[in-house]
């Protein structure tokens, strides 16, 4: 790739992260291949699969997801530190990536995670690829944390949502950041006044507990309402509230981190119509990623060539 190492920072964003697949496809089709890939949360999953040569398999998996299949991966956990154990999803990743160590990959790869207790930003650059992915996407309160070398880790978006700094530290001279959350959270808008509305009646806790106790199918229905939304107007479920709160925090941290350590270019897919749990809508999300990357391709090629990029890139730009 010449003297100009290209870094790719793939940000977190739950289901919106399927857009990363489209971004990578568009970049590769244009002859742009990153030397260094850093990912946070869903960005670590897509980036890890890409570096391992399994991006087509991940894309096929994503495109085949339905709401029912998404619910099937939610192995509910009442006794641990997360609502979902994540073992079923781990089994899917293991089926394709079992035995792959990060240090054996053909490109540099880092998954970003956060250490519980200390809040340290942890860069996972060695060991089992699947374990690094799991630690990076372990949303607090949703997925069970992952223990690696005696350290309990969860989602890296709490400390570095779009890991530009990782790419810089590993020697990237040109960093492409992909932020799939840039159009959420109202860009930090302040609402000065809001009329108080009459509170809607809530479902009595004892009623829902009774439903849970009666049978497992009712539990699945309750979980579906909590995650995908309720059919009435009683408001979002606790899982969605947790996710949205986490997303707001992630958005603010991402803006601060990228202001202090800006990438050379940001690819920002336009995803206002997609929710954090829309994993079953992979096809339009991937297409949005392709469109966003194509809007920036000419600038990326020009800037890489100007920095002494690969001869093939220079030839195309000339």
Give me the number of helical elements: 12
Biggest sheet, open or closed, and with what strands and sense?
Answer: 8 strands, mixed
| Alpha-carbon distance between the two ends | 17 Å
Q: Tell me the helix content.
A: 40-55%
Low-confidence stretches at least 5 residues in length (pLDDT < 50)? 185-191, 196-203, 205-215, 314-318
Mean pLDDT: 81
Shape: globular
Strand element count: 10
Helix/strand order: EHEHHHEHEEHEEEHEHHHEHH
State the secondary-structure class.
Answer: alpha/beta
Radius of gyration: 20 Å
Strand proportion: 5-15%
Keywords:
318 residues, 12 helices, alpha/beta, two-stranded parallel sheet, disordered C terminus, globular
Structure explained in plain terms:
There is one protein chain. Helix content is 44%, strand content 14%. With 318 residues, the chain is of the alpha/beta class. Strands 1, 2, 4, 5, 7, 8, 9 and 10 form an eight-stranded mixed beta sheet that branches. Strands 3-6 form a two-stranded parallel ribbon. It starts with 5 loop residues before the first strand and ends with a helix.
Please sum up the structure shown:
With 318 residues, the chain is an alpha/beta fold. The chain contains twelve helices and ten strands.
Question: Can you lay out the helices and strands and say which pair or pack?
Answer:
Layout: E1 6-10, H1 19-29, E2 36-40, H2 42-51, H3 55-63, H4 67-72, E3 82-84, H5 87-97, E4 108-115, E5 121-124, H6 129-137, E6 141-143, E7 146-148, E8 151-155, H7 164-169, E9 174-178, H8 205-214, H9 216-228, H10 238-260, E10 265-267, H11 282-306, H12 311-317
Parallel strand pairs: 1-2, 1-9, 2-4, 3-6, 9-10
Antiparallel strand pairs: 4-5, 4-8, 7-8
Helix pairs in contact: 1-11, 2-3, 2-6, 8-9, 11-12
């Amino acid at each position: 790739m010449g003297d100009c190492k290209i870094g790719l920072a793939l940000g977190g964003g739950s289901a919106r992260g399927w857009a990363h697949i489209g971004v990578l496809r568009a970049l590769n089709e244009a002859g742009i291949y990153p030397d260094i890939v850093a990912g946070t949360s869903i960005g670590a999953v897509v980036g890890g699969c890409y570096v391992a040569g399994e991006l087509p398999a991940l894309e096929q998996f994503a495109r085949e997801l339905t709401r029912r299949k998404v619910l099937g991966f939610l192995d509910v956990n009442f006794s641990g530190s997360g609502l979902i154990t994540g073992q079923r999803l781990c089994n899917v990743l293991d089926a394709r990536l079992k035995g792959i160590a990060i240090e054996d990959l053909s490109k540099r790869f880092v998954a970003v995670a956060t250490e519980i207790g200390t809040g340290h930003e942890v860069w996972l650059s060695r060991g089992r690829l699947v374990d690094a992915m799991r630690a990076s996407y372990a949303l607090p309160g949703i997925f069970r944390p992952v223990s690696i070398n005696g350290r309990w880790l969860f989602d890296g978006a709490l400390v570095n949502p779009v890991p530009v700094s990782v790419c810089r530290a590993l020697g990237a001279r040109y960093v492409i950041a992909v932020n799939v959350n840039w159009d959420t959270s109202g860009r930090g808008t302040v609402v000065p006044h809001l009329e108080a509305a009459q509170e809607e009646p809530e479902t009595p806790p004892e009623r829902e507990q009774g439903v849970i106790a009666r049978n497992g199918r009712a539990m699945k229905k309750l979980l579906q309402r909590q995650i995908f939304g309720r059919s009435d107007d009683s408001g979002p479920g606790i899982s969605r509230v947790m996710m949205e709160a986490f997303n707001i925090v992630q958005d603010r941290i991402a803006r601060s981190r990228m202001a202090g350590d800006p990438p050379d270019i940001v690819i920002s897919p336009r995803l206002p119509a997609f929710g954090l749990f829309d994993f079953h809508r992979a096809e339009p999300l991937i297409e949005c990623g392709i469109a966003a990357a194509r809007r920036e391709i000419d600038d990326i090629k020009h800037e890489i060539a100007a920095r002494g990029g690969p001869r093939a890139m220079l030839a195309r730009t000339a």
